[in-house]
Write a structure and sequence with these properties.
Order of helices and strands: HHEEHEEEEHEHHHEHEHEHE
Bound molecules: 7-methoxy-6-methylpteridine-2,4-diamine
Radius of gyration: 20 Å
Number of helices: 10
Shape: globular
Distance between the termini: 55 Å
Mean pLDDT: 96
Strand content: 15-25%
Structural class: alpha+beta
Largest sheet: 5 strands, mixed
Low-confidence stretches: none
Number of strands: 11
Strand order of the largest sheet: 2-11-10-3-9
Helix content: 25-40%
Amino acid sequence: AEEKAVELRRLLEKYGYHYYVLDDPIVPDSEYDEKLKELVDIEEAYPELQTEDSPTVRIGGVPLDSFKKVQHEIPMMSLGNAFNEQDLRDFDRRVQQNLDEPAEYICELKIDGLAVSLTYEEGRFVRGATRGDGTTGEDITKNLRTVGSIPLRLDNQVNIEVRGEVFMPEKSFERLNEEKEKNGEEPFANPRNAAAGSLRQLDPKIAANRNLDIFLYAIADDKGRGLPSHLESLEYMKELGFKTNPESRYCRSIEEVIAYVNEWEDARTNLAYETDGIVIKVNSLAQQQKLGFTAKSPRWATAYKFPA
Ligand SMILES: COc1nc2nc(N)nc(N)c2nc1C
């Protein structure tokens, strides 16, 4: 039974990675469900085989009676905002005047979801927390384990903390609200509230049925990995098996940043998820360190907000 369980687990992890992270399924859903059911039955017969990184945790276990508090060793910062082209040029000027070499940028879509931090020890997902007030968040690990695009176990046994945005795709949001209206329940105002509301449930089975997704956008810990740029950090996270947003773009100048912002201000309506802006970051990690932080935000990044 143990070898069967191990074999099923590896299969389900591979199927899950292709389906949830690559959005490119390699088996029909029925095959995934059948294998998952097989593993559930084995784990029920041999409880000692139930581990926290088994794909069966995606279904959601027993409800918690409360969320534990989590201290963020590295605070989860907020971002300064830019509302128009002039603000972006001002940001660029402030950046360039404090550097010897010209800064280049990475632009990323700002996903309209909930910021979370994921901690992995020897490659195992051990803790997931909300941002909270930036230093104290809530432990929502059990709920995050039900999010298919969050790997429960990495092939590379690294210790790493990564940060990203959990969101509810628009189609799932519409389906959820139809159901709520059918049951005479109050619908969610927007996908962001629906994602936040789903993660705040003490019963992980609820989060498991909400089709939540995630894009990771930063390595939080400052363990010197020798990665020289943010672009390489994104590529490193992707290699580890994390889901990163494919629309991120390297911009050599603020002109290219402005072009990217204008492009997505219109094109964002074609995306499968909601965004509320664009995050612009200095690409070089050495230049990020040189620029540092204000009390609550990095000087090397800004969030351009789309008009509401
Ligand atoms: C470096 O800090 C950040 N980076 C970010 N990147 C993206 N794409 N989206 C965010 N919401 C975000 N938020 C913060 C605080």
